[in-house]
Design a protein that fits this description.
The chain is an all-alpha fold. The protein has one domain. The protein is built from nine helices and no strands. The N and C termini lie far apart (about 35 Å).
């Protein structure tokens, strides 16, 4: 029988495999963004699940960066996680480390926003406010076009994610800024 995680159980599992504040902050950021999109896209009844997927999406990255999205399958199966959680988490590595494509709209959102939240966060840190609360699309677009800025945030993945969702890049960026505003208090504590 597979297990449905509560948020507290997912957090405990995340902290078992991750200690770096940077990774914990990223997990909480993506969790909040996923919760926002669940509500915005008509999946409010699935908000908890979307959030847990966001929280656990990089579960294996800190300890197993060379096996990212591979090792997590074993970790999650060892704790009897439900297969739809495993598929969702693993599919965000599509065309990078695995050949499992995002299928559900939630998986496509995760794929699109994972890298983008890093780029938006890096842009916000440079602002006097150090916040997304006053961040505008044009500021992110300017940094987006600078290849050396937040170089670890793949523009190719972001663009592929936008295409999977059928959204223009500007729409994805703007909506993700709004999503990050909705949960900034949570991830700012790291």
């Amino acid at each position: 029988m597979s297990k449905k995680f509560t948020r507290d159980e997912a957090w405990a599992l995340l902290c078992q495999w991750n200690k770096e504040p940077f990774h914990l902050r990223h997990a909480v950021t993506v969790e909040g963004v996923m919760r926002y999109f669940a509500r915005e896209l008509g999946y409010a009844d699935e908000e908890e699940f979307w959030g847990i997927v966001g929280l656990l999406h990089d579960l294996d990255y800190e300890k197993f960066p060379d096996e990212h999205c591979l090792k997590v399958q074993e970790i999650l199966r060892d704790v009897d996680a439900e297969e739809r959680l495993i598929h969702a988490v693993v599919s965000h590595g599509y065309a990078l480390t695995v050949d499992i494509p995002p299928e559900h709209e939630m998986e496509k959102v995760l794929y699109a926003v994972d890298e983008l939240t890093g780029l938006i966060g890096a842009t916000a840190i440079l602002r006097p406010s150090k916040s997304v609360s006053d961040l505008e699309l044009k500021s992110v677009k300017k940094k987006y076009k600078t290849p050396n800025f937040a170089a670890g945030c793949s523009r190719e993945v972001i663009e592929r994610g936008a295409a999977m969702l059928g959204w223009e890049l500007d729409e994805l960026i703007q909506r993700t800024i709004l999503a990050m505003r909705s949960c900034e208090a949570e991830y700012a504590r790291f």
